[in-house]
Amino acid sequence: MRTQLIAGSYHHGNTLKLAHVMAEVMHAAVVTPTAVVISTLSTYELIGLGTGIYSAAHHPQLLQLADDMPQGNGAKVFIFSTDGTPRRLVKDEARLRSKMHADHAALRRKLEAKGYTVIAEFNCAGYNTNKFLKLFGGLNQGRPNEEDFRKARAFATDLMTAEHH
After folding, report:
1. Pick from 37, 96, 134, 135: most CB atoms within 10 A?
2. pTM to 2 decimals?
3. What is the secondary structure of the chain as a DSSP string?
């Protein structure tokens, strides 16, 4: 299946690392939001879009790309992200899923308004040294880690398996 991953990482490379792990499973290329050739998007059977979460939404460059994308006509997309939520303090999976759903809402709405079908969403912790956090060594040091990458591979495998059935 012809797949494109569009990912941006603006501080520590968290989301780009995640994208490359998924791309390996999906045999896909990874491009940044500013390097996407919009005219080629309709040639892909599946498109993944992700960045870190900034102020409860994806990075503005990715949101702008969603605005610039052509009509999707039901084309399948998935959304992914990393965020700085302190996983040592927040371990409740239902709460983390709810936060992911809320953080992905702006991008999801833009894609659905353009006629894309969002088939899945993925999120994991990312190292966060924004603002005053850098004074204390940041949150989620070492994230994404091997367990996050294992989950990302499983997510990508599930997407590819589901698409072939």
Report:
1. 96
2. 0.93
3. --EEEEE--SSSSHHHHHHHHHHHHHT-EEE-TTT--GGGGGG-SEEEEEEEEETTEE-HHHHHHHHHSPP-TT-EEEEEEEE---TTT---HHHHHHHHHHHTHHHHHHHHHTT-EEEEEEEEE--B-TGGGGGGT-BSTT-S-HHHHHHHHHHHHHHHHHHT-
* Residue whose tokens read 């294992």: 150
Q: How far apart are CA 57 and CA 61, in angstroms?
A: 11
Beta bridge partner(s), residue 54: 57
> Whole-angstrom Cα distance, residue 54 to residue 85?
11
Range from 8-17, 22-31, 82-91, 100-109 carrying the lowest mean pLDDT: 82-91
Task: pLDDT band for 164, please (50, 70, 90 cuts).
Answer: low
